[in-house]
Amino acid sequence: MDYQPLVELVGVSRRYSLGEVEVEALKPVDLKIYRGELLAILGPSGSGKSTLLNLIGGMDVPTGGKVLFDGQDITEFDEKRLTLFRRHQVGFVFQFFNLIPNLTARENVELAAEIKGEKVDGLALLEKVGLRDRADHFPSQLSGGEQQRVAIARALAKDPEILLCDEPTGALDYQTGIQVLSLLQDINREMGKTVVIVTHNVVIGNMAHRILRMRDGKIDSIAVNEHPVEACRLRW
Ligand code: ADP
Ligand code: MG
Predict the structure, then answer these.
(1) What is this model's ipTM?
(2) First to last CA, the chain
(3) I need a surface site. Which of 33, 56, 199, 221 has the fewest CB within 10 A?
(4) pLDDT tens across 27-69, in order?
(5) 11 vs 27: CA distance, rounded Å
(6) What residue stretches are annotated with the ABC transporter domain (predicted)?
């Protein structure tokens, strides 16, 4: 199929040296992530999920191979360019929300765009995640699920090309986790945003276009629910 992916990993690997010991966190992997797709990453603890996600988003630099983002090899970027790339093109959502405690929900969201030199309507973004009425609350006044919604609104504030979510439901109960995953699915379907989610919540199997399983630092399998290119072509 002649279709340029948003991200392409070519023989990407990541090794850590711990004194005498070498840890191969990620063995050489090839992977294409398509524009508009919802990709789930599953796998046991220590299998390389976070390593893979961080390499996709330029949070980490591979020890082998290259990462093409929109056709550009980000592994060739210097530190400054890589920082700009992350700031402008990548939205991250973490397990523990990482909101700034002394800023309100709205301020947390608006600050993310300011870092990029833009202004956004924090209220409109909070409305998207169903939290308009919590705009003036501080993180400590919000439930875990609400904090994660604010974190998702914050990630969207910079209008990134891709949303990378590392165990976004890891600190939430099962039902709240499902609500957060549904929100991410809506963002994928309604906004056409490319979304990658690392999760242990099995409901993702019914939501994602593709389900990638990691094992021992390798891609064990990729199951296809709906071919992302075809799915996205039909949608817009
Ligand atoms: P997962 O997210 O699937 O739990 P990780 O990608 O965090 O797995 O880790 C994969 C492997 O790489 C693990 O064995 C882990 O201990 C190792 N690893 C990850 N980060 C580092 C690091 N900064 N230094 C050394 N080893 C690391
Ligand atoms: Mg991890």
Answers:
(1) 0.98
(2) 18
(3) 221
(4) 999 999 999 999 999 999 999 999 999 999 999 999 999 999 9
(5) 8
(6) 7-234
From 26, 45, 50, the mutation candidate for ligand 1 (largest count of ligand atoms within 8 A of CB) is: 50
Round to whole Å and give the CA distance between 159 and 121: 12
| pTM given for the model | 0.95
Q: Please count the structural domains in the chain.
A: 1
Q: Considering every ligand atom, which ligand is closest to the CA of 48?
A: 1
User: Tokens 């405690």 correspond to what residue?
Assistant: 101
Tokens of 111: 């600050």
Nearest CA to 16 among 68, 57, 60, 53?
60
pLDDT value at 147 more than 60:
yes
- Tokens for 11, please give them: 């023989």
Range of 158's domain?
A: 5-233
**C-alpha 183 chain-centroid distance:** 13
- pLDDT tens for 116-139 read 888 999 999 999 999 999 999 999
Closest ligand (CA of 51): 1
Tens of pLDDT along 100-119? Answer: 999 999 999 999 999 888 89
User: DSSP H helical segments within the chain, as ranges?
Assistant: 49-56, 79-89, 105-115, 122-128, 144-157, 174-191, 228-235
What CATH code is carried by the domain that includes residue 132? 3.40.50.300
- Binding site membership of 223 for ligand 1 (Cβ less than 6 Å): no
Residue 111 in contact with residue 158, Cβ under 8 Å? no
